[in-house]
Queue: 2 jobs
Job 1
Amino acid sequence: MPVKYQKPRGTADALPEQSAAFRNIEEIFSAEAQLAGFGQIRVPTFEKTALFARSSGETSDVVSKEMYTFTDRGGEDLTLLPEGTAGVVRAFLENGLAGEALPRKLFYFTPCFRYNRPQAGRLREFHQVGFEIFGADSFLAEAELIAMVNRALKQIGIGDAVTTKLNSIGCRECRGEYKKALVAYFEQHKDTLCETCNERLYKNPMRILDCKSPECKTVAKGAPVITDYLCAGCKEHFNALCALLTDLGVNYQLDAGIVRGLDYYNGPVFEFVTDQLGAQDAVGGGGRYDGLVEELGGQPTPALGFAMGIERMALLAEKCGCKFPKPDAGRLFIIPVGDETRPRCALLADAVKAAGISCQAELSTRSLKSSMRYANKAGFDFTLILGEDEVKTGRFILKDMKNDRELSVGGESELIAVLK
Ligand code: AMP
């Protein structure tokens, strides 16, 4: 029979096993956050549309083509988060964190929504873990973030499959000169560039470096590189960062093609890429965005951050054969014999769980044989059959499902001791 309802295109269900892989990744990043003093922030899943137009830039793909925007019943123009940073900056300002001690370090987990063409590794709803630092202008901040990501990837087991790519896109001043040089270069190749890149040639020529079309990629290879146009300040910051990363043992590659898709970046930008996920090669990325807090109405505040795609990290982990702890089937399954003992099963299960041991009582009124079959399939370590006799004598027979043996235990506390 065909399934009546199917999930919307570009979305995914994560069943318990996959959720366990996601949670494992989340726990690794949470632990890193704790070590470096990042506090978790939870912001709404939708924001006023104007926030993204303002922060991400009207010419970015995310804003111009990919946002899930709608008008609610009250006529408010809203958008599901396409990324995490804008909402965090909004919350940082709205809650007065800008007036507290800086730097302030925040991290988050959020679903993101982008209306794009779904393919392997590219969804319309996906999840990110992101870290942001506000009020830090030193290159030490970038180095801390990049080293942290590398440590987390190593713990997940995908460290060797991911390369850190690094570039600097300079400040407004360096970019002015650079953009002129880029326009002059791309003008000579107008006929080869795709339609979109022709449109952005004068509005935002750096985007062309980010284009995925093979023709544009080839043209982009010969383009002037931003690092030749950095001002003294940007150059110094970038060189110091590179030197520190080397000292920290971070394996990185300089790549002039890393420009990031959003308008708010400046200075060092980075991406964590893999060659094992086909076209969707970025597992994460970030950089400095010194102008964004001011753009959204705050005082000038140097800031930076990164976001990693949780599904892509999990996909890569699977490709790399990483083993995550499987969701626990359960230690004990208690099966009643006869309706009278059912409540006793619930009481015993409750006591075992109170002792911190996973335990389930049979919730269905099926036969003993079906219950046993279920316990076997579900993978419980032990089963316990509770009949009138057991209730009367207070002795239980504990069946060890993995080792095919039986143990006789006298009462609740001995049972708990044995299971522990
Ligand atoms: P971005 O803000 O585009 O750099 O995204 C940061 C990370 O989120 C990427 O490196 C991916 O790992 C992940 N990501 C971005 N877009 C998608 C998508 N459509 N589906 C799944 N993951 C995505």
Job 2
Amino acid sequence: MALPSRSQQTAVDKEGHQWWQHAVFYELYPRSFADSNNDGIGDIPGVTSKLEYLRWLGVDAIWIAPMFPSPHVDWGYDVSDYYNVDPDYGTLQNMDELLAKAKQQDIRVLLDFVLTYTSDQNKWFQEAKSSRSNPKRDWYIWRDGKGPGQPPNNWTSLFGGSAWKFDPASDQWYYHYFYPPQPNLNWRNPEVEKNLFDVTRWWYKRGVAGFRLDAVDVMYVDSQFRDNPVVGTDKNAFGDPVEREIYDKNQPELHGVLRRLRKIADENNAVLIGETWTSDIDQLRKYYGEHNDEVNMPMDFMFTTINKLSPADFRKQIQWVDGSGGWPVYVLSNHDIRRVYDRYGDGQHNDQIAKLMASLYLTLRGTPVMYYGEEIGMENNDPKRPEDVKDSMGKAGWPKEKGRDGERTPMQWNAKANAGFSAVAPWLPVGARYKSYNVDIQKKDPNSILNYYRLLLSLRHTNAALLEGKYIALNEDDPNVLAYARIYQTKTVLVVLNMSGVLQKVRLDLASKDIHAHPAKTLLSSFAAPKQVDVDEISVEPFGAWVGEIQ
Ligand code: NOJ
Ligand code: CA
């Protein structure tokens, strides 16, 4: 008898978990994933052509960074039309084909919903800008200046300079938290909410399984437009004063929008991932909603700010999010964050460290969101000269801030020209090591990072303790080794991660956690470990990872 496909399985399992709680998500940057028509730019048919690969790897859902029509001031995060596909990436028909083929492969497709601001080329903004009395004027945030040439207040843009841009034609300023061509929408206007919500309904009908919500923290600003307090006298990378962003961020009203958006998602068996940058766990907790009725998957970015192999820091962060009451969502890198290989690599054991970090975020209780290329150990390929920079953030901030091109380079498929991404030179240069770090070569090597990822994904889909088990920290004082158990009913999986460059003989303190210390069977290890392991003393090689199950 054939097993039901994943999409046919019941909505909730016996532990009350829904599909997205057991799924592995994979973020891909459409411009850099696969180029089907050899113009140097990745596209939607390119993504479709790689679904089989993603299924082989064990991915359940993809989140596609924005593929809507856009002038690409911020590479798609400046949307000029929410109801179409950018011609660089294909057509709506290509999108429908992707959705249909993905369904066949049991892969769900999520889009990136840029709901806080639009492009200034969006017809909504064009109308709003046309006159002060235009009915859409209030869809954006317009204010008079404090005086001639003076913006309404001191708020600064994340990408440098004032967050206000003057429009001489109407003699008012409009607000943009990001680039000037990204005017913020006025979510206090009910028409904005209605129109943006309709966008999600339209895509759900086409078969989309959810959205990653962009920049939700800056969706609202203070209704009185008060100045932010300035901290000290230092300037940031753009030469702006450093502000405490209390009036342009995290305004309480945004939670109402998230609750209403969630309701529509629930009606469509869809899921919302949040771009939820927070500075403490209480802030993160708010995004789940008081009744777990806001963002299903607020990403824990505090996890990504741990930039060294520090068991103590990881332990603390895991404990916080695991005990938060919400379902943890683990991320290590994305299109805004430097790749794992660079952040944690020591230059000598980078492959081992890539496997170590994979073993961490893919064995925790929660949902992991992978970033394309991490599974083959891609590294950052940062621009060397200012004239090569494609990311406006790098253009504005050079040389202090080189921008995010480095983590957005083309996926490395094989050792042929341009890493098999395209027949012509790609929009960003391919990483220097692509001849050995590519999918083709690593598929053939049983010890590759890619095959290690594949085994890990398979394990987390089939092992009951990894699927359902609670998280129990072990050896909490160990400065070198991060160890924990995942326990479900009679099953106990142990995870031992050596974050140091020397061999560690680990004596797991199981007794104090009431875990019986029978021998364990190795399920997966990044080094040659015996099949049976005595848990009284587990030898773990430098930067090695060991995952085993108590017998
Ligand atoms: C969040 C996106 O992740 C980032 O890439 C983008 O630059 C900002 N939003 C602003 O649009
Ligand atoms: Ca193309």
